[in-house]
Amino acid sequence: MVINKTRKWHLLVISICLIFLVGIVIWAQRYGEDPPDKEWLKIKSSQQHYLLRTTASESDGRKLTDRMELTFDALSKLLNWSGALGKPFEIKMYKNRKQFVKGGAPPSAGAFYSPAEKYLCGYFSKNKEKIYNYMSHEGVHQFHHMVFGRPYEEIEGVPRWYDEGIADCLGNSEVKSGKFRMCLHKGPIAMGRLPVIQRAIKNKKYYPLAELMKMDKRVFYNNGGLCYAESWSFVHFLLAYPKKEDKNKPYPAGDYFYIMGRLFTSFMEYTQFNSGKKKDSQFKTLDDVYNYAFTSKDGKTPINMEELEEKWKAYVMKFHFREGADGLKDEEAEALLDKTVDLFKTGKWAEAKQGLDELKTKYNGTMAVTENTNDLNQMLRICELKSKEGSTQSVTTEIKLFNGKDINNWEQDDDDEEAGGWTVKDSAINCASEYGMIRYKEPTCLDYTISMIFKFQGKMGPDKGSAFTICKMNEDYNYVGVTVDTNEKKVKLMGSYKDYLTVQGLGSIPYRATSFWDSESLETVNYKDNDWNTLKFTVKGTDVSASCNGTEIGSHSISDEEIEKIGMDKRGRIVLLIQDGKTQIKDITMSYENTESNGKSGDKPEKDSPQDDSGENIKKK
């Protein structure tokens, strides 16, 4: 394994990001450049719980600290905590994404908490509510770290389901008429988490609660998509059941609300004992904590955890993905989708097309259609091709990912325009930014070839050269791809994933590792600076390969260990990453062969541990 030490965003030690690019990021070292001291304002929050340093306006800073005070108040009451801070929590906020990334943050991050330096860090987006959600989530990690101390960071410390579950519920919040309300059942985080956990429960691929509650930190973050969703849903259940939310209170107080307070107080003793601060405790192990917390309200009768799990699953499955859904329409759509997929796979093109048309008209907006829009479009194209051919042979389909006119099918961050932005000029996508990332809106098949033409027009940033990467990135921000690096003068086939380092004083912490599987020099591939070059990247099962200007760069068969770390069984999005370069890109296409196996990661058997099944290309879930 090689760790790329030439790129800032590869050096940053990170853990998992939320579906909205939120995550805990731990910096092992500080790389980047901050604005000069004179550009920073210091703002104390109204209740003195937060000290903000920001390059934004005082008005923006005050609004953020006011929101954080509301978050702090709700969290304190939720956990029945009334202790003293000692000193205010620190927050560092850049005025825009360009400053944030230039300061050393990875381009994919939206906000993070640094346990090493004990401050929250983020930037002011045009979408202020999104930033407030980010910072409320990260503020929970900051609060827990202050209360629990060093064991919070350890692999065997405070369980991740508890920490991330509460953080999601606090981040899944709003303020109306000055009143804070958390645990929104249709909030921004819930809408991202809900389809994942409902799909896992339906397909019996969720983690049993007994396993989730004792899960190792590594396992949790390596399966972040499912683990975050399950943790959010379980904590939301404990707080709100049997209601979905409480519209009149800052937090719901359901039948199991009291358990969260018990968990908090017992975890405090548990961490103090295991760090040596307390010589004796009734909470020496996680079993001690759970046996105390999961009892009846009067403390006399243990809760049957198997019955609680069944109650949690039934509760989660009653939630609806879209506004106004009555449940019946969603079930009808699921049944029709299953039937249509069977028709499609058996080559009954006319009947399959009829089912697809009905899904997109009668059932538009249901979970079945919303989650599978790209797959349904691809199936329709294939049905039309097959009908014309009158054949049942497999068809290679090519899709243009860029139409030469606009980037409406691509997503960039809210503030990318301030950082140089992605625009269309002369029938090409242009990016003139020190750091930039753009994602194709729809998920890909697992087996495909991406082809594009690109041109560097000069460097932008402090490095000697520029880097351009095309990759498939999944929901855990792991990816496989190919990078053209004019600094090292190489084209490299690579994979990136989360791993763990043991750092003195911090214990085991997650970091982003990058493996380079094959490479060729720019000279060998006839690379032309300030001229057009062709780049191709292919994924077929567990094999990846790439070429530049018709010259093979190499290929790699991904090992079982790498499959587990990268998440090759998960469907992802095509992502373009630019660093330090003015770049033009055109003629972006994706070609794939329609076969029954496309959408599964080769012929490898399923792992023993459950996985989020979002990797299926044609959903028969």
User: Over the alpha carbons, how many angstroms does the gyration radius reach?
Assistant: 25 Å
The fraction of residues assigned to DSSP E strands is 25-35%
Q: Mind describing the biggest β-sheet? A: 13 strands, antiparallel
Global geometry: globular
**Secondary structural class:** alpha+beta
Count of alpha/pi helices: 17
State the end-to-end CA separation.
35 Å
Average pLDDT: 78
How many beta-strand elements? Answer: 22
Q: Helix content range of the residues, please?
A: 25-40%
Poorly predicted sequence stretches spanning 5 or more consecutive residues: 1-31, 323-327, 460-464, 595-621
Structural features, described:
- This protein is an alpha+beta fold.
- Helices cover 33% and strands 26% of the residues.
- The chain has 17 helices and 22 strands.
- The strands form 4 sheets. Strands 10, 11, 12, 13, 14, 15, 16, 17, 18, 19, 20, 21 and 22 form a 13-stranded antiparallel β-sheet that branches. The protein has a 5-stranded mixed β-sheet with strand order 3-4-5-7-6. A two-stranded antiparallel ribbon has the order 1-2.
- The model is unreliable at 1-31, 323-327, 460-464 and 595-621 (pLDDT under 50).
Write the layout of secondary structure elements.
Layout: H1 8-11, E1 13-17, E2 23-26, E3 41-44, E4 50-54, H2 58-79, E5 89-94, H3 97-102, E6 111-114, E7 119-123, H4 128-148, H5 160-171, E8 174-176, E9 179-181, H6 188-202, H7 209-212, H8 217-222, H9 224-240, H10 257-274, H11 286-293, H12 305-317, H13 328-345, H14 349-361, H15 367-371, H16 373-389, E10 396-400, E11 410-412, E12 422-425, E13 428-440, E14 448-459, E15 467-473, E16 479-485, E17 490-503, E18 507-521, E19 533-540, E20 543-548, E21 551-557, H17 560-566, E22 573-593
Parallel strand pairs: 4-5, 5-7
Antiparallel strand pairs: 1-2, 3-4, 6-7, 8-9, 10-22, 11-13, 12-13, 13-22, 14-19, 14-22, 15-16, 15-22, 16-17, 17-18, 19-20, 20-21
Helix pairs in contact: 2-4, 4-5, 5-9, 6-9, 9-10, 10-11, 13-14, 14-16
